[in-house]
Amino acid sequence: DISKLIMNSNSETRWGNQIGTILLPIFYHDVNSDPIQFVRRAKAMIDKKKLSLEAPVTYKFAHFLVSRFGPKVSGDLNYKVVCSTTFTLSNIVGPKDK
């Protein structure tokens, strides 16, 4: 049982979802543009952002909001960001189908 593992664990590993945000602009292209060039440009941009402090800083900011103002304010801000976002990716595992 996972709850017993969490409660009996003496390790310093953190449990739970750790969330950070990276915001990327959307580039529109014309019909004659090369799709591979678009993918290369997007990959270069994402690689640069992964090396930046954007995701860890947004995580620390969200942690600060929750600790200082509570989950309601943090949830409202997160809701506004998600509603203003065109496309979202997540690596959080969803429920397994039976």
TrEMBL record:
Molecular function, one GO term: O-acyltransferase activity
InterPro entries recorded: O-acyltransferase_WSD1-like, O-acyltransferase_WSD1_C
Pfam families: WS_DGAT_C (PF06974)
Gene Ontology, cellular component aspect: plasma membrane
O-acyltransferase WSD1 C-terminal domain ranges (all copies): 15-97
UniProt-listed GO biological process terms: triglyceride biosynthetic process
Name of the protein in question: O-acyltransferase WSD1 C-terminal domain-containing protein
Species: Genlisea aurea
Species lineage: Eukaryota, Viridiplantae, Streptophyta, Embryophyta, Tracheophyta
